[in-house]
Specification:
Elements (H helix, E strand, L loop, with lengths): L1 E7 L4 H11 L6 E8 L5 H8 L4 E3 L2 H7 L5 H13 L5 E4 L8 H9 L5 E6 L11 H10 L5 E8 L9 E8 L6 H25 L2
Parallel strand pairs: 1-2, 1-4, 2-3, 4-5
Antiparallel strand pairs: 5-6, 6-7
Length: about 200
């Protein structure tokens, strides 16, 4: 079985797309061994619980507040240890809103087996790295700088949204679009592309 751990911070609609793909056999041989959130109120946790998937909350703010000697690198190491408890072959960032410290990635690079970490970013390679990518693409379209946007699933490295690209998808922007229209269109494409990326990686093992 190709076990994955999914990291979320909010609603979990991409998580739901993965769950649905597993249940309808689009993702054969794939299972979610845990869903981890940095926020206890994240609705994605309820989605996971509804499908009897193990959940964990590991808050960066609480972790740092509980012990003033701790830092973000300590958090990254501890998060990596928690994830390893679930024996994943892949870690999927699906709306995880914390930049992972280098210490997190090092934990998976130096320990065997090496586990890939992938992220879904709502922009094409080399465009709109970091936060608010959809809004920035929308503004760029309004200025006539681009005629479409897109998204990518990529491997996570220390540099933000700059790791090896696994899959991309173009997303149209229409003249009459509001930002909400574009966000809705982006999310529908995200769900399919993320599932396809997991399928690709799971079948390469």
């Amino acid at each position: 079985m190709f076990n994955i751990v999914v990291l979320i911070s909010g609603n979990g609609s991409n998580l739901q797309a993965i769950i649905d793909a597993i249940e309808n056999k689009t993702l054969e041989g794939v299972s979610i061994s845990a869903v981890i959130s940095n926020k206890s109120e994240a609705f994605g946790l309820k989605r996971a619980e509804k499908h009897n998937i193990a959940t964990r909350v590991f808050s960066l703010q609480k972790y740092l507040k509980d012990d003033a000697s701790r830092n973000r690198n300590d958090y990254g190491i501890e998060l990596a240890k928690i994830i390893r408890e679930y024996n994943p072959k892949l870690i999927v960032l699906a709306g995880w809103m914390i930049i992972l410290p280098a210490s997190f990635l090092v934990e998976f690079e130096k320990n065997q087996p090496i586990i890939d970490v992938i992220n879904l970013h709502p922009a094409l390679p080399g465009q709109f790295a970091g936060a608010h990518a959809i809004e920035r693409a929308y503004e760029s379209f309004q200025k006539g700088e681009i005629d479409h946007t897109g998204l990518m699933v990529h491997k996570v490295i220390e540099e933000i949204d700059a790791g090896q690209v696994i899959l991309t998808a173009n997303v149209d922007i229409k003249k009459e679009d509001t930002l909400s229209d574009l966000e809705e269109r982006m999310h529908s494409v995200e769900h399919t592309t993320l599932v396809n990326a997991i399928k690709l990686l799971s079948t390469q093992q």
